[in-house]
Amino acid sequence: MTPRGRPAAGAAARRPGGGGRARPAGPDLFAGERAERLRKAAPLADRMRPESLEEFVGQEHLVGEGRVLRRMIESDTLESLVLWGPPGTGKTSLAHVIANETGAEFVWFSAVTSGIRDVKDEVERARERLEAAGRRTVLFCDEIHRFNKAQQDAFLPHVEKGILTLIGATTENPSFEVISALLSRMRVFVLHPLTEEEVGRVADRALADPVRGLGGRGLELAADGRAFLTRAAAGDARTALNALEVAARLAATGAAGGGVLIERRHLEEAIQRRAFLYDKAGEEHFNAISALHKSLRGSDPDGALYWLARMLEAGEDPLYVARRLVRFASEDVGMADPGALAVAVAARDAVHFIGQPEGELALAQAAVYLATAPKSNALYVAYGKARRDAEATPTEPVPLHIRNAPTPLMSELGYGSGYRYDHDEPEAFSGQRYLPDALGDARYYQPTDRGMEAEIARRLERWRELREGRTPRSGEPSE
After folding, report:
1. CA–CA gap between residue 159 and residue 81 (Å, rounded)
2. How far from 358 is each of 305, 316, 354, 369, CA to CA, in Å?
3. Any idea what the Cα angle at residue 301 is, between residues 349 and 320, rounded to 5°?
4. Contact between residue 309 and residue 301 where contact means Cβ atoms under 8 Å apart
5. What angle do CA 232, 234, 237 make, to 5 degrees?
6. What is the pLDDT along the chain (479 residues), one digit of tens a residue?
7. Distance CA 74, CA 426 (A)
8. Which residues contact 339 (CB under 8 A, 6 or more apart)?
9. I want to staple 114 with a disulfide (CB 3.0 to 4.6 A). Which of 77, 85, 118, 136 is the partner?
10. 105 near 211, Cβ under 8 Å?
11. Contact indicator for 165, 78 with CB cutoff of 8 Å
12. Which residues contact 381 (CB under 8 A, 6 or more apart)?
């Protein structure tokens, strides 16, 4: 059965509710034979969406007995909120439950297929509904992080005035993806990946349900297969159900009749894309990013492109990859090619601006640039040394000659005394000391002879020559 609350393709679906249950507007498009055809065509993960709080699995901290979100749903006293969590943790399923439980008009809205005109239209309908019948509107915005600032601004005054109750679902941190003015008027509920036990319950229910699930087909899940499934799903109920459905078909294809045993090998084949063997929070995640980083450091653009593709195809957050490229640009290229940082940051901005899959090429461009750039960790080493000295000498006073003297008293105390203005010196270089006396002649940055650093090394050597015999000690008068 197609879950209640399913929107019409390509548009927001308006769904009036009543008596605690939401019902489709107009004629029942999902009745009779058509409903049966749609039910059979829908993937298992869609068919098994919970229709009530009792069916919902996971997120006990939100919907367990007596918890705040459960109380809001049961009492139909929803306020605007954001559901934030990884894929497959129940954000859309909670929306289905709210659609079935609330007495308000429930409107399903997708940020992928709708624009600012659709927002304004729905807001106007909500206003008319409230004025004419005193009926509230709950607008569920799937993937709210895909809305730009102008689209989110369109919601703001109406949420503030109570014209509608907005529920946004997002996989991205709402602190960065939802404008602050709107976020301040919404409560954020964080959804966590399901535990292996919870994923197992979801799978068991799907195997037992003869109407929406795989029940009545003589299917049985082997113990080792179940253990593999609950682990490989990595807290994602959708991944588990999709894999279970494919594995059931694979097992049935080779069965001679009677009962059908879904074995681990069937699940391994069904989940091979996920078992691309990549988990976004576990060992393979760190193995893959390490491989990408070392390919870049080793100046191998082919290896870098391969590991980049492996991570993105396995579902890694492209902004996470972009952040690592930005880090690499300073850590392993540094001043050998100062433009590397600009390229990496531009790739990050491109991914944020156009999303995926278009943003993949920007990341690929940055990866190739970084792999083929001259390498230097001199900046990384220099900052590490400076940081250690800073931690060891946190109370060393700033030398008097490089302090500002904004008051007469500070001038009398010697602040700024002996300072030499570099632009007035030959070659715009005074040769003064800038480190605290306790650090002596410490040198942190040692440029290599690669790329731009070769030129930087030449400049530093020239300045050292000029400094010889001309460097005033802290507090000494200038020549």
Report:
1. 10
2. 16, 15, 6, 18
3. 35
4. no
5. 100
6. 333 333 433 334 444 333 333 333 334 444 456 656 666 678 898 899 898 899 999 999 999 999 999 998 888 888 889 999 888 899 988 888 887 787 778 888 777 777 778 888 888 888 888 888 888 888 888 888 888 888 888 888 888 888 888 899 988 888 878 888 888 889 999 999 999 999 999 999 999 999 889 998 889 999 999 999 998 888 899 999 999 999 998 888 866 666 789 999 999 888 864 444 455 555 567 788 899 999 999 999 999 999 999 888 877 889 989 999 999 999 999 999 999 999 999 999 999 888 878 889 999 999 999 999 999 999 999 999 999 999 999 889 889 898 998 898 988 889 999 999 989 988 898 888 889 988 988 999 999 999 999 999 999 999 888 887 645 444 444 43
7. 79
8. none
9. 118
10. no
11. yes
12. 444, 446
Residue 400: name the closest of 413, 384, 385, 382 by CA. Answer: 413
Structure tokens at 414: 């010697």
Q: Which residues pair with 416 in a beta bridge?
A: none
Choose among 223, 218, 224, 206: nearest CA to 260. 218
Which amino acid, residue 45? A
Q: Left if phi > 0, otherwise alpha if psi is -120 to 50, otherwise beta: which for 413? A: alpha
DSSP-derived pairing of the beta strands 105-110 and 137-142: parallel
Integer Cα distance of 477 and 479 in angstroms: 7
